[in-house]
Amino acid sequence: xxxxxxxxxxxxxxxxxxxxxxxxxxxxxxxxxxxxxxxxxxxxxxxxxxxxxxxxxxxxxxxxxxxxxxxxxxxxxxxxxxxxxxxxxxxxxxxxxxxxxxxxxxxxxxxxxxxxxxxxxxxxxxxxxxxxxxxxxxxxxxxxxxxxxxxxxxxxxxxxxxxxxxxxxxxxxxxxxxxxxxxxxxxxxxxxxxxxxxxxxxxxxxxxxxxxxxxxxxxxxxxxx
Length: 225
Known about the structure:
This protein is an alpha+beta fold. The chain folds into two domains: 2-52 and 122-214, no CATH class; 53-119, no CATH class. 55% of the residues lie in helices and 21% in strands. Strands 1, 2, 3, 4 and 5 form a five-stranded antiparallel sheet that branches. Strand 2 and strand 3 form a beta hairpin. Helix 3 (25-50) packs antiparallel against helix 4 (122-153). The mean pLDDT is 81.
């Protein structure tokens, strides 16, 4: 994620500069259109890379190691069982299970603590960086020009109020509800793991339609005025 953000961040400046030359509208509309048609394919690819459940029948081998560590000043012991499952495409699922063995009146009781992590191959890692980079690139296409675009929409007498209202409704209401509505859709329609994407896709589609029909592609001939 950090690599993708680092690589994509300069494009905020680039698309802001480009919008001064060719106008703001179609850069922003292009970013929205690309997001509408590629969000699900991209997230499908991310899911395919990282989902070990779909790769269970492709387990190449399984490694298990056990380590027993006495607890100082106690009859109890700490047992750590590390299980590594190797899948195809270089994906590994690492499971570390820690049991505290309590010796009480000759009995042993277990209190397991299980931690699971996934390890990807370098090729899959680079693929995920590229996918996230492209999706952030869509953001830069909209947010690079948007500040100047909003300023140019309104006369100076009402500019601050007119900018503030739609900007914060867009980010606070529509953007803020993404986790809530996405989770609601995911728990309601459990057969589709990516069903939560339909909300941001729908908002982007609505913005694209309204923007294409009603906005004009103004070009400020003197950006230094």
